[in-house]
Amino acid sequence: MRTIWTRVLLLLTLTFSASMAMAQLPNEKFGKPSSMEWDFVGWGDAIGADAIILYKSMTATYQLTDQVSNNTQSSDFGIDNLQDFGKNQIDEGNILVNYQFKLRTKILKPEGAKHANIDITYYSLNDDKFISADELSDLKIKVFSKNEKGKVVKRSINTSNFVKERVDDNYMVLHVEVPDVEAGSIIEYQYNITSTRAAFLYDWVFQESIPTVRSMFDLDVPAFLQFNMNVPINKLIKPSVTAGHLNYDTNRQDLKRGKSCPTNHYVVVGDYILPEGHPMKRNADGQGDEKAEKIAVFTSLITTPNVPHPAAMPEGCTHLRIK
Predict the structure, then answer these.
(1) Can you tell me the distance from the alpha carbon of 81 to that of 257, in angstroms, rounded to the nearest whole number?
(2) What whole-number distance in Å separates Cα of residue 299 and Cα of residue 308?
(3) Residue 309 CB coordination number (10 Å)
(4) How does strand 212-222 pair with strand 51-64?
(5) Would you state the pLDDT for residue 64?
């Protein structure tokens, strides 16, 4: 009897430990990988992968200048003046969209070193008569590894020598190559994109070429920009939307009113996502092998009147792709 209870207690302990490990992942604070991330080698069907994405995120916030303020009698933009604002006041030159991207990848096998490299695609119009481009800035890359004594060694990657390539007349891609990566290394990437295209949001890909522990985006969109949001319908994807507000970036003393507007705040999280076609355990009948299905890309489409649609991203190309 004691042996049986001992086994039960051991099983419960292992289950609890596994649950605690999952609960502590991922570490969304960059700069110091957690102890759990150093030990983590995957989950379930992801065990045995060459590399794994521990965390990737996109945060997008709008920066509204005083020039787009509709100096009305109300303190906020409400339902009564959203229609007029949408038709007459949108000037993309006075609205910025600030994106922040983060990515943490762990290399599990020597052959997985290639997954330390990424491509960053961003808008840059190839037109001598009209200058329009998103600004890619603050690219930071750090590689963490452990020496033979188990001490964490951190190094920063020089980002000045990466190659840029034009994809088409609307987009450029920055090819990020990270050298001297070995099994056990953890690589962190951070960069920002500043865009003047208020009526455009970058798509978000939940499913990469290697397993992903957590993939999420956080969008806080002014309500007067009416987007249709296409959120993937999948049990691994958990979307939410709440009402918020956004203050204007203004120093003008005469704008004592109309300094904020309502927003739609979208947060969508995907956990434990396998690559498309990744082998899975046998089905309920025990016949054949299942394959991970394709998960749709998050997309957005502006529906506000009199706002031109931006150039579409090239097919098969996203702003962030793990090689």
Answers:
(1) 14
(2) 17
(3) 9
(4) parallel
(5) 79
User: Do the Cβ atoms of 182 and 107 come closer than 8 Å?
Assistant: yes
Rg (CA), the chain: 23
* pLDDT for residue 67: 53
pTM of the full predicted structure? 0.82
pLDDT score recorded for residue 92: 55
Please report the pLDDT score of residue 73 as a whole number.
Answer: 34
pLDDT at res. 200: 87
CA angle in degrees (0–180, nearest 5) for 133-105-279:
110
- Give the length of the chain: 323
Q: Are the C-beta atoms of residues 76 and 235 closer than 8 Å to each other?
A: no
Contact assessment for residue 222 and residue 263, using Cβ atoms and an 8 Å cutoff: yes
**Which residue numbers in the chain have pLDDT < 50?**
2, 5-23, 69-89, 255-256, 286
Cα 72 from Cα 148, distance rounded (Å) = 66
Beta bridge partners of 57: 102, 216
Of the candidates 53, 32, 149, 49, the one whose C-alpha atom is nearest the C-alpha of residue 104 is: 53
DSSP states of 133-177: BPEEEEEEEEEEEE-TTS-EEEEEPP-TTPEEEE-SSSEEEEEE-
The per-residue pLDDT for 223 is 87
The CA distance from 168 to 313, in Å, is 9
Rounding to the nearest 10 degrees, give the CA dihedral for residues 117, 121, 124, 126.
80
